[in-house]
Amino acid sequence: MTIKFTRFPALIKLAIIKEMSYMDVFYFSLCSMKIRKFIENYRKKDVKIVRYSLTSKLIQVFAGKRVFGEEVMVSARALPTVMPAYFTRIGSVRKSVSFQWQEEKLLGFYRNFMEIIFRTTSAKSVKNAILEHVTALFNRSSPVIQLQIFIDQRPGKQIHIPGVKDTRIRGEQVDAKFLEEFFRNNPGQISAFIEPEITGRLSVVSKIYQLPGLSCRNSSKLSASIMKRFRGIELQLCKAECTTRDIVSFLKMWILNKRRSLKCLHIFFSRPIDTQKVIDHFQLRRWSLEPYSLKYKTIIMDIIHKSVTFDCRRGWQVQRQEDKQMAVLFFSEISLLFIVWDRTRDQFVEVIQ
Questions:
Q1: What are the C-alpha distances in Å from 305 to residues 195, 208, 236, 301, 330?
Q2: How distant is the alpha carbon of residue 32 from its chain centre?
Q3: Cα–Cα distance between 151 and 106 in angstroms, integer?
Q4: Which end of the chain, N or C, is less surrounded by CB atoms within 10 Å?
Q5: pLDDT tens-digit readout, 48-98
Q6: CB 94 within 8 A of CB 83
Q7: Low-confidence ranges of the chain (pLDDT < 50)
Q8: Which residues, in sequence order, are CB contacts of 10 under 8 Å at separation 6+?
Q9: How far apart (Å, rounded) are the C-alpha atoms in residues 163 and 210?
Q10: Residue 107 has what pLDDT?
């Protein structure tokens, strides 16, 4: 004898859904509007993060209980000719779709998931439908929203995903104009991780400079201008084409209280800088204060959030003029790490060597 899911008592229905994977929950919600509404009204408390991954033609949604612990919830793409086709309601409209199993290799392991093929030529309509559907399923959970964009061919116009707190941009190259438009249309983010080389020029008033946390894995020729104009809390630059003069200029600005919000700057240079010139210019001294053990926790969400402890005795003392705020500088010819303490000079004790 067959018993419909909707006829079970509420507690049994909740227990069944709780045992499902996120992918199972999504596809189960397509079965009927009654089931979908029940899932929407059931607060899935273990959902902590939802990540949307976009290419020019594909959208994938990952959900999980923690960062780096997400699982595939749904994958969908547009294709004009699909056989066989079924009608189902995704988001607010009925769609003609087919279903296809996919296999993907990730970190040396294979994972299988069902992909939805939409019978349409509009990739944007596919992305909007999936976004609307997933948002409704988690409307009572308030998860952290992450966005991952793969720059392949022409990225085109991006759909608007409300509430994004962190963005990861992948690929070989990304144009500065794309970044300008994206961060202008998606304010309120905590951090961004930009993997591709940034080409073109960023405007002086670009919203990218206002991000609290920014990590650029190939900032190249734009490194000096980003470092100069960044007004957030944490900045990471790799393959940075910076000169010794750029580093001197940055430290001057911080000492003169013009970079008050900055807490951490981490740079990997594409070519060596002259560290002795920096030391001589500011007459820097080795750290000789107590305490010397400094804990710092990154705010950039692409990086595992663990506090790292630094022994400042290996670094150099830097003091801001106006309020005597202290910072430590670790650097070599190829890298620099600058971290600001939450203490002023009078809260330290000089250690007699």
A1: 19, 22, 15, 7, 21
A2: 34
A3: 19
A4: N
A5: 889 999 988 889 999 988 766 788 899 998 888 766 678 889 998 888 888
A6: no
A7: 106-108
A8: none
A9: 17
A10: 44
